[in-house]
# Entry
Amino acid sequence: MTIQRTYEEINTKIRSGKAVIVTAEEIIPIVKEKGIEKATEEIDVVTTGTFGPMCSSGTIINFGHSDPPIRMQKVWLNDVEAYAGLAAVDVYLGATQLSESQGMEYGGAHVIEDLISGKKIKLKAISQGTDCYPRREIESYITKESINQAVLFNPRNGYQNYNVAVNTSDRKIYTYMGILLPNIGNANYCTSSQLSPLLNDPEFITIGIGTRIFLGGAQGYIAWEGTQFYPQMLKGEEGKAIYKGGTLAVVGDLKKMSTDYIRAATFKGYGVTLVVGIGIPIPILNSKIMKNAAVKDEDIWTEIIDYSFPHLIKPSLGRVNYKQLREGNITIRGKNVPTSPLSSYAKAREIAQRLKEEILRGKFLLQEPIQKFPKENKFKSLLEIH
Amino acid sequence: MLSKKVIFTFSPQNVEKPVTYQLIKDYGLWVNILQAKFEPSLGGKLVLELKGEDEQIKEGLNFVRQIGVRIELLEQEVIWDEKKCIDCGACISICPTGVLSLDKETFKLKFDYEKCIVCGNCVEACPLQAIKVTF
Ligand code: SF4
Ligand code: SF4
# Structure
């Protein structure tokens, strides 16, 4: 008999402290030993985690009104410009926006980290002034306690999979995939592979709009499909299928987050980004979902891409799996190349563990998606029309 | 026992001298090769860690100086701020001497200071600015 479970059954077990929960790493030996069916019977939830640079991130802030009031038209937080084209005292601060005085050393992501850690942030705003909002400028300090809302809203996070970046040119290049040494001197990759949320439910059977997630140390939600969402599988080479383009738009209360799970980072020569911690629980509703959640590094493939090529479509140098990548060396064109992850596996594991504990303590219930993501999507390029 | 890290720069005239062999045999030093780059027509560069008594190291270095090899002592040090580090691993593949790796059990960063030649590569590669070079 094959097992079928509902979200409600799982939540009832969580409330009564009887749910069985393991991480996406712990499930691998269990399935190996007992098989998919038996594991499906025994396990209710598998938790996943990832902690990596996610550039498409930012926060919505409402400062509250001053007296006399101002309709803020341009706003800077610690010298980093936030987008103020929203009403009077709402802004969107993007993670990659750079400081106007410190350049690449400080940016939107650093303001976000400072805000979370309770530091004072310098606010400067200017306006033309109107009859109802007479004030033309303001300088003050804010903290997370002084403002009305700080809502993290990240339009594209949690990339399902990503390229391995190499450089075939004869000079060192600085990219969002880190520093790439000449003549394929190193290879950088960036996922938590077998722990990664969207690789453990690659067909989005349980992950959709409304799914409750662990976000930066707090509970958050999936708001929508991420921008550039592309859920289709790339075939090509036999037995080396690649899920590549699933992404998430996520939302959560920044004030409740912790700098243990959300950090600012600077990639030299590229810029500032936000390192975001995301964990997603996968309800084991049936054996198909269990089979997907038991995925191992050696079954997850990705493509080695030459980042020295300055065009949108870059040449591929072949496919590798994450077992090979995580061993620390791969062979490319007969050369032994050291690898670097840019996404922290140790932290991904910590997030999956923490999420597991929160569910076990009954503090985190599973939320069925209100709406599923599209099964297919087009990936469009920007055409230049004159 | 003292331990010193040194860089030897060879010219085409002295590039073929068996320096490490003599440091071991004639001066009784413990020699660990951290990095070696040679091009017989142009010269070469050798980064070594030397261990021995103060006197032995001094005499050994004098001998190397006499055959015309340029010596630099590595006095700088690399400081890794573990609290800032998120164990992402971005610094690993860029290190020329394999100082950095992820622990096979915990996947946290391991820093094998002994092998470090203070090249500074990891300093610029770390997105969290968790590594610094001091003078
Ligand atoms: S400075 Fe950093 S990259 Fe250079 S040798 Fe030392 S650890 Fe390796
Ligand atoms: S790059 Fe920096 S943060 Fe990442 S593992 Fe190395 S020292 Fe730690």
About this structure: The first helix of chain A runs from residue 7 to 15. Chain A has two domains: 7-54+153-360, 64-147. Residues B 80, 85-91, 109, 126, 128, 130-131 surround iron/sulfur cluster (ligand 2) (CB under 6 Å). The radius of gyration of chain A is 22 Å.
